[in-house]
Each structure stands twice: as C-alpha cells, then as structure tokens.
Design a protein that fits this description.
By secondary structure, this protein is an all-beta fold. The chain has one domain: Roll (PH-domain like), CATH 2.30.29. The chain is built from no helices and 5 strands. A hairpin with a 5-residue loop joins strand 1 and strand 2. It is globular, with a radius of gyration of 13 Å.
C-alpha cells in the first residue's frame, strides 16, 4: 500500500497535513486531515522509508 503525506493551506493562513492512500486506479484518496497548529511534533524516524509520528497537542506531555 502506498501512503502519501501532503501539506496545504487556506486563504486565512492555516496549514494542514493530509494522509492519503493510493487507489488501485492510481489516484489518491485523503483519509485524514490535521490542522498544523493542532500538532505538537512531527518526527522523521527513517528518511529512506519516510515514517513519522504525529502527536496531537492533547496527547503531548509538554503542550503550551
């Protein structure tokens, strides 16, 4: 299965990160979207494999 993580923004300056998967016909479907200001950490574990962990602020021990 192929997963794609992408970012976008809107006219108000808010940023988003989207988790998408590749469909059998080569198109992508967005499965989940997070606002960037709701995230407290994005950690790249292995650049070659592009695996990372997203933590929502509510799950962070040191959230502001």
């Amino acid at each position: 299965m192929v997963w794609l993580y992408s970012t976008s923004g809107n006219a108000d300056g808010e940023g988003f990160i989207h988790k998408s998967k590749m469909n059998s016909n080569g198109t992508f479907s967005i499965g989940k979207t997070w606002k960037l200001d709701e995230l407290c950490a994005v950690e790249v574990i292995n650049v070659g494999y592009i695996y990372f962990v997203l933590l929502l602020r509510a799950e962070c021990q040191h959230s502001p």
